[in-house]
Each structure stands twice: as structure tokens, then as C-alpha cells.
Amino acid sequence: MSAAAIVMMVVSMLVVWGGLALAIVLLIRNDGRQDHGPGIGTDREHLTRDL
Amino acid sequence: MADQDVVATEKARRGAFSSRKVFIFAAIGSAVGLGNIWRFPYVAYENGGGAFLIPYLVALLCAGIPFLYLDYALGHRMRGSAPLSFARLSRPAEALGWWQVGICFMIAVYYAAVVAWALSYTYFSFDKSWGSAPGDFFAGEYLKAGEVGVDLTVVMGVLVPMVIVWLAVIVIMVAGVEKGIGLVSVIGIPVLVIAFLALVIRSLFLPGAIDGLEAFFAPDWSTLTHAGVWAAAFGQIFFSLSIGFGIMITYSSYVDRETDMTGSGAVVGLANSSFELLAGIGVFAALGFMAQAQNVAVDEVVESGVGLAFVSFPAIINEAPWGAFIGVLFFATLVIAGLTSLVSVLEVVVSAVRDKFDLSRKVAAAAVSVPCALISLVFFSTASGLYVLDILDYFINQFGILLVAVVSMVVVAWSLRALPLLADHMNRRGSIKLLLWWRLLLGLVVPIALAYMVFNSFRDAVETPYGGYPGWMIALFGWGAAALVMVLGYVLAPMPWRKDTSLEDPGLAPPPGALPDSPPPATARHAVGADQHTTTEGARR
Fold first, then answer.
1. Chain B residue with the nearest C-alpha to that of A40
2. Which residue from B113, B178, B399, B473 lies 20 to 30 Å from A23 (Cα-Cα)?
3. Does B260 sit within 8 Å of A34, measured CB to CB?
4. How far lies B374's CA from each of B58, B165, B370, in Å?
5. What angle do CA B278, B33, B313 make, to 5 degrees?
6. Helix, strand or coil, per DSSP, at residue B154
7. What's this model's pTM, rounded to 2 decimal places?
8. How far apart, in Å, are the Cα atoms of B487 and each of B68, B95, B99, B491?
9. How many angstroms separate the CA atoms of B355 and B85, rounded?
10. Which ipTM was obtained for this model?
11. Helix, strand or coil, per DSSP, at residue B451
């Protein structure tokens, strides 16, 4: 593979997958800031609760 | 307590996702569809390879995610299906919602056929039933596609998987928002990601995979000056994210009022792009192998859409070590991605019917899904299914989804001037604040980009008959279908809503930080009273 292709592959992965990881972290951090108490924070809800 | 009663009543009446995570999985399930796997790799390759990343990211950040936020804001604030959300914003705007419902109905009718093809090919992968000429097998032996035209001869090999797909869809829709769509998404999306990861890893170890990756990622910087490349990036983002035709409005109306919708939207948008990138790597690694096996350049084997999935991939499976394994993974991921997208499209219709008419969830789901299934089976299990599908798909995408997106955005931003109201709503809980930048993008950049795409498509469609099909087929299944869904919107809009559906803006629960026992603000005491806390309320009327 050419150097340019390798650089673009790495940059693509970092930007898109890194961006996704960052977005998840920010979402969870925002939950922490807005928590109201036990049972109310969205992050405490089980993944498949009520399914 | 009154607010909790309102929320409980709303959940019982309309259905709801039990948590934000289920919503995010469902939204990703809707966004990640067949286009991610078979469209993105080709579009990226054709438009500059690695250089395409720049217009693609610009389109994602400047158009895709902002537009996603608009859909979220409408559904989450107005707590209704697409027609109800638009009606609550402004009564005459309801027709836009029904236009979106019509588009979704049309898409569901033909989308099921493609999922059924993928289901058949999952089975065929075990013994490579397509033989040494996958192209001839697909069009001839499998679809039995003859002369271009309408031939209603039933093809049993297509009818049976279509019946299976529709039975699964009907069960999911009848089961409801949480136990149907939520459950399928929560299980399906992780399975999809794991299966596709396995496929990508296997493809990367095939001989020639590096050549495929070189073709996919090698940047052609000169393409960045071409308007067509930027239009392709905006088009890819737009079609890939399931925005502008009611799905995200419907899904966000099922989410708890205190949810961070902007943070959730960023996760959904980036997850969709992450999967697209993964698909690009997997597909081009496999195409690199095929090129090496046939001793040709990669550009000679690059395909997209139906050709990539049902002709190129079977050829790859024939040649590759562990071919059956690759085949089952590839086609099973198509089935899962297609199924989660199909139920999201159909949910737009079910939700609208349920909001409008006095029907229970089960009855509404059956009343929508069964006729949709029958129409789908009549048209697409036949020998002419491929041609009708091709025309319908093109025209509904270009002159249905794109057009309704432009019109609804102009109406919301310029006619109703509702963007400040919706931004206020999203900012109450959102971790990403929608400020002036959001209004500028949605008021100017996105409508101009979409209008440019519609204009280009219209010019192309008028100058050259799409796909070389006969004029009468294009008029009937192309322009006719696109016009029909638009007319449907204006026919259904004046019909009365069920008695317990209020057309008032449901407003919001108490502001963030309010104690659970503190009295709710005056505006929230009414069951579905209007939210009067913003200065933008007047502008909405």
C-alpha cells in the first residue's frame, strides 16, 4: 500500500471510530452531570429492562 | 405527579422505548441498512477514495447530524408520529407528515424483496448454489427476470423467502415498540457488528486484500474541486442516516422527555459512519482478492448495489478459502441490517395510523403490515420484480425522500420559523447545544445542498430515461409513484384525528434540576398543554 493510502486509512479510522468513542464518553459524562438520584439517571437503566 | 401520569398514559397509549440505550440501538438499526454495505464503498471509491473522507465528514457534520437533530427535535418535542408532530407544529403542515408516511409505505413494499433475496442467498451460500456464473444465476435462474416490462408470473424461489420476511416483520410490528422493534434492535445490532467484524477480518487475510484497500483509500485530491463529489458526499450521508422521511421523528417520540437527544444523535450519526467505514474495508478487501484471482485491476471488478451483493460477492465466495463462511456472514448481515431498517420504515406508517385512528397497537400494526405485505408479494415475487424495484427505488429516493426533505426543511425553518423553539427544546437536556450555527446550517446550507441534488436528479431524469426503461414504466412506477405519495399526504391530512389525540404542543416536563416533589410549572399542569416558556412561541403560530 502507498504511504498516502495508509495515512488516509489511519486518519479515517481515527476520526470516525475515535469520534464515536468520544461521543459515547461525552454522552455518559453528561448523564453524570444531570443525574437526579437513584433510578432516574438514564445510564442506570438496564439495557433490556422491560423488554 | 400529574406529569408522571401524563407520561405513563402516553407510554401506554403510544408505546415507548424503555431506555435511551434501546432507542440508540433502534436508531442505529434504522440508519445502518443495505446502503451502508453496498453503496458507501462504491461512492467513496468513485469520488476520490481517501480524499472523499473530507467532503464526507463535512457533509456529516454540516448536514447529516444537524438534520438528524431537526427530526429528533420534532418528534421528541411534539411526542407524535410524523403527521402528528407536523400537525402540532402547525395544522396545515400535517400533509408533510403524511407525505413521509406514503414514502415509507412505498419503501417497505420493495425493501422487503431485497431482504428476501439476501435471505435466499444466505441459504445458497452453504453449497454455492449460484454455480460458476453468479450473474446469470441471479437474473435468470433465481429471479427469472425476462423481457423488461410487467410480468406477474410468480417466482416461487422469491415468494417463499418474502413470505418468511413479511411474517417476521408482522410479528415484530404487532409485538410493539419495546418488545418488537426494541428487542430486535438490541439483539440484532450487536450481532450485526460482530458478524461483520468477523467478515472483515476474514477478508483482510485473503490474498490481494491490500490491493483492494489501496484502491479504496488512495486519495485523489483533484476530486475535491468537483461539485459532483461534494453532492455525492451529501447524498450518501443523507440517504444513509434515515433522515427527512419520518423515521427519526417517530423513534424520538418514543424516548423519555428527559433524554439528552443531541448527545444521542452524535452517537447514532458516528456509529452509522463507523459501520460504513468498516463496510468499505471489508468490501474492498474482498474485491482486491477477486481482482487478484481474476488477474485484473481492482477497478474492473468494482460494483455497487445489487450487482455487488448478488453477483460480485458470490464470485468472491466461489474463489475464496472458507467461501461458505464468508457468504453466510455477508448475506446474514444484509438480512439483519435490512430487517432493522425495514421495521423502522414500517413503524412510521403504523405510528401515524395509530395516532390518527382509534386503533389498538396490534390492530394498527396488522392493518398496515398485512396490506403492505400483500402488495409487496404481488409486485415483487414476480418475474418483473427486479425492474419495478429498480425504478421505484430510484424515483422514491430522488423525488420522494429528497423532495419532502427540502420542502419540510423550508417550511419548518422559513415558513413556521420553528427552529428557535426546537433548539430551545433540545438544549434543555442536550449535551451539545444547538446555537446559531444549527439554525444557519438548517436554514441555509442543508436546504441549498438538498435542492441542488433534487435539481440535478430532475435534470438527469428528464434528459435521459432512467435505466433505459420504457417510458410507460417510468411514468407509472417512477413519476407516478412519487406523485402518488405526495397526493396521499394532502388526501389524508384533512381526516379527523382520534378523540384522545390533542393537536396542542405537548410542551415539556418541569425544567431540568427541578425536585421531583416540587409543583410543576403552570404550563406542565395540563395534560398536553402548550409550552409557553419560550419567547419563540408566538413565532410558531
1. B258
2. B178
3. yes
4. 42, 12, 6
5. 65
6. strand
7. 0.88
8. 26, 9, 8, 6
9. 10
10. 0.85
11. helix
For helices B94-127 and B156-175, the axis angle rounded to 10 degrees is 130
**Whole-angstrom Cα distance, residue B485 to residue B106?**
8
Nearest to B431 among A4, A7, A30 (CB): A30
pLDDT, tens only, B313-354: 899 999 888 889 999 999 999 999 999 999 999 999 999 999
What count of residues does chain B have?
Answer: 541
> What does the CA dihedral B427, B430, B433, B436 come to, rounded to 10 degrees?
-50
Of the candidates B51, B463, B464, which has an alpha carbon nearest to the alpha carbon of residue B226? B51
Distance (Å, whole) CA B382 – CA B369 = 20
Output the DSSP codes for B497-540. Answer: PPTT---S----SSPTT--TTSPPPHHHHSTTPPP--STTHHHH
Cell of B319: 474463489
Cα B209 to Cα B197, B285, B331, distances in angstroms: 15, 4, 20
Contacts of B231 (CB under 8 A, 6+ apart): B449, B452, B453, B456
User: Phi, psi at residue B154, to the nearest 5°?
Assistant: -75, 135
A-chain residues near B281 (CB < 8 A): 9
Alpha-carbon span B56 to B402, nearest angstrom: 18
Q: What nine digits make up the cell of B119?
A: 435471505
Query: Is B263 in contact with A27 (Cβ distance < 8 A)?
Result: yes
Res. B104: pLDDT tops 90: yes
